[in-house]
């Protein structure tokens, strides 16, 4: 296999500076690949896929015709992040999470930011993530978002930008943990040579974050899952196993005398902390959706009285709204009196008349996103869309402008990816995971999502994307 012919093209490439010119940090990796016998890298890719199959590393695709569960696509060529790059990412993410927590707390209490006119009140009250039932709530330790997955992209200037904030129930960390195990088996000698920072401490860090929310010396912690048909059930199960906590469904929990109890083979046991992987609307049929069979009746009342901790806190989704995202640089400035370390991608709010006019006139150049959708759904990539698709999108924007934002079509950075028996560039983003407990902890690495389809900018697994291991160097 020859790598000297690899062409990074006009995009920023994470491993190459130019044709046949590896970046200093990737030289060792690419030299190792070049030393392998013809066809050996492909054999190792296939071996890695067999390991993933045996691990049962799957994800669910809603509405898929080919069966519910799919093996998570994985590419053997890792992404490399230098120590100095990671230092900036780490401090930028910690800054962002602190500011967003202060914002959520303010929104549900004094609302200073609205009174000072920094963000329009209407944007908050029309957000699907804003819950009136959470007004005046005091979550344990004053923390609303304990677990965040914040998506980053790198573009032609080599800088990292925040693409979006996932503050409700961010998924994907299981694939980070398992991808690392696969890569260690596949290239053990490279890990010794590179001094890659480990990721296997995440479950312990998560457990400490959850324990911090209880005053008890040994609190009972559970993960609340919607069940085996949820797309992230594999992750719920893996994290419960690695932390040594119970994985429960709503039918396993009951509120008695204001406290949450878990049904066990030995009788009833009080639960102190719930890491819930269920959206706000379904948490408690008495407080939110009455038709929910995934939630626990009386859970919100128990939470309000401080008798159980919920992670993340209900109402956190107001900061997840893609229209609120546009204001995060101002939030950082307002609450922390600091400039953002990681910039936002320029964003047009369709709820703003001037922005909307610009978006409708430039749909062929922009990416349009629904403010409360995830997984790549509700998105239009203007340059790749047909005239009919753009006209349909324009109609949706005019009918409900609050529900849409637009951003420039970004030239996402690429990483060499094994296609058949050779390397081709594929676009990537990066989702680091951030925990907020006694301190802010950023998992060194995160999920590098890769658009496996040639030319595609959509990295979501539900839309044909896959995963690469992310090597943060010591």
Automatic annotation (TrEMBL):
Pfam families reported for this sequence: CP_ATPgrasp_2 (PF14403)
InterPro entries named among the record's database cross-references: ATP-dep_Glu-Cys_Ligase-2 (IPR051680), CP_ATPgrasp_2 (IPR025841), UCP005522 (IPR016450)
Domain of life of the source: Bacteria
SUPFAM superfamilies (alphabetical): Glutathione synthetase ATP-binding domain-like (SSF56059)
Domain Circularly permuted ATP-grasp type: 78-451
Secretion signal, residue range per the UniProt entry: none
PANTHER family: BLR5612 PROTEIN, SLL1039 PROTEIN
Record's protein name: Circularly permuted type 2 ATP-grasp protein
Organism: Nitrospira tepida
């Amino acid at each position: 296999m020859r790598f000297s012919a690899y062409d990074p093209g006009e995009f920023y490439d994470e491993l190459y500076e130019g044709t046949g010119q590896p970046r200093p940090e990737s030289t060792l990796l690419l030299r190792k690949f070049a030393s392998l016998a013809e066809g050996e890298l492909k054999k190792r890719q296939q071996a890695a896929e067999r390991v993933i199959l045996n691990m049962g590393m799957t994800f669910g695709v809603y509405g898929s015709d080919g069966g519910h569960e799919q093996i998570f696509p994985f590419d053997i060529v890792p992404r490399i992040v230098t120590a100095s790059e990671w230092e900036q990412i780490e401090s930028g993410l910690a800054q962002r999470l602190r500011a967003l927590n202060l914002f959520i707390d303010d929104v549900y209490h004094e609302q200073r930011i609205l009174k000072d006119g920094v963000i329009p009140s209407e944007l908050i009250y029309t957000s699907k993530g804003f819950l009136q039932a959470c007004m005046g709530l005091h979550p344990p330790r004053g923390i609303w978002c304990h677990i965040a997955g914040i998506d980053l992209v790198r573009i032609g200037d080599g800088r990292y930008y925040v693409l979006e904030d996932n503050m409700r129930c961010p998924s994907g960390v299981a694939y980070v943990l398992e991808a690392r195990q696969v890569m260690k088996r596949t290239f053990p000698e490279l890990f010794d040579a590179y001094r890659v920072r480990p990721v296997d401490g995440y479950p312990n860090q998560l457990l400490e974050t959850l324990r911090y929310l209880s005053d008890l010396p040994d609190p009972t912690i559970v993960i609340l899952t919607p069940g085996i048909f949820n797309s992230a059930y594999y992750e719920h199960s893996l994290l419960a196993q690695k932390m040594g906590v119970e994985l429960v469904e709503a039918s396993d929990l009951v509120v008695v005398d204001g406290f949450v109890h878990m049904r066990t083979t030995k009788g009833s046991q009080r639960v102190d902390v719930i890491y819930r992987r269920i959206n706000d609307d379904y948490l408690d049929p008495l407080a939110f959706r009455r038709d929910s069979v995934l939630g626990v009746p009386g859970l919100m009342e128990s939470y309000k009285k401080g008798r159980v901790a919920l992670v993340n806190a209900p109402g956190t989704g107001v900061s997840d709204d893609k229209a609120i995202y546009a204001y995060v640089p101002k939030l950082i400035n307002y609450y922390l009196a600091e400039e953002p370390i990681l910039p936002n991608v320029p964003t047009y709010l369709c709820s703003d008349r001037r922005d909307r006019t610009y978006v409708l006139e430039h749909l062929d150049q922009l990416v349009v996103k629904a403010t409360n959708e995830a997984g790549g759904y509700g998105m239009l990539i203007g340059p790749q869309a047909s005239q009919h698709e753009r006209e349909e999108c324009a109609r949706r924007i005019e009918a409900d402008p609050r529900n849409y934002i637009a951003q420039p079509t970004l030239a996402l950075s690429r990483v060499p990816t094994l296609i058949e028996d050779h390397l081709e560039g594929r676009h990537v983003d990066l989702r680091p995971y951030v925990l907020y407990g006694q301190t802010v902890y950023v998992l060194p690495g995160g999920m590098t999502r890769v658009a496996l389809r040639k030319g595609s900018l959509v990295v979501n697994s539900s839309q044909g994307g896959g995963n690469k291991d992310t090597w943060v160097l010591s």
